[in-house]
Structures are given as C-alpha cells and as structure tokens.
Amino acid sequence: MKRGKCKGDGPEGSPTPVPANPRRREFVMHNKAPMWNENSQVYQLDFGGRVTQESAKNFQIEFRGKQVMQFGRIDGNAYTLDFQYPFSALQAFAVALANVTQRLK
C-alpha cells in the first residue's frame, strides 16, 4: 500500500497518514417489496411463519436477490430478528433499532 507524506511523518512514532485510496466495499441492498393479497386487500410479506403479527415495523432486506435480513413483531412488544451475511450481529441490530426508533416519532 502506498503511503502519503504528512507533516511530522518520521521515525519518532508520529501519526501515520491516511492512505490516499482506501479499499472500500459497497453493498447495495433494498427492502423487499410486499405482494398484494387480493383476498384480504392488503400488502403482505412472507416471513415463513417467523413473524406472527402485522406491524408497520416489519421488514425484509434483500441483497443480490436473496433475503438477508428480516425483522418483525411476534407479540405485543416482542420482535424477532433474522440475519445473515453480509450483516454482522451488531449491524443487523443497528438497522432494526433504527427502524423501530424512526417509527416512534
């Protein structure tokens, strides 16, 4: 990796400069679109039995056409969170928490 020079960059342990072109990985994901249920006249997502109550907070995220995260209400104030790569546990929890707190306003 190439290093750029910064003021004070020397052998005395001065700060290391930030690389000019750090490697970044970008993941483009999207919310899965719900399907229209003609019988009940509502939009629905299939949670495979993991989510048992309707809520505006329920969601699913897709990455490259594959579902990688789902979050939904299972009881009163209880929710379930399922995730896989490319999410870590911390990232998945942060997304779910942001979704819940955004809708509390």
From TrEMBL:
Residues 24-99 form the Tubby C-terminal domain. Residues 1-10 have a biased composition (Basic and acidic residues). Residues 1-24 are annotated as: Disordered. Coiled coil: none annotated. Gene3D superfamilies: Tubby Protein, Chain A (3.20.90.10). Belongs to the TUB family. This is (California timema) hypothetical protein. It comes from Timema californicum (California timema). The lineage of its organism: Eukaryota, Metazoa, Ecdysozoa, Arthropoda, Hexapoda.
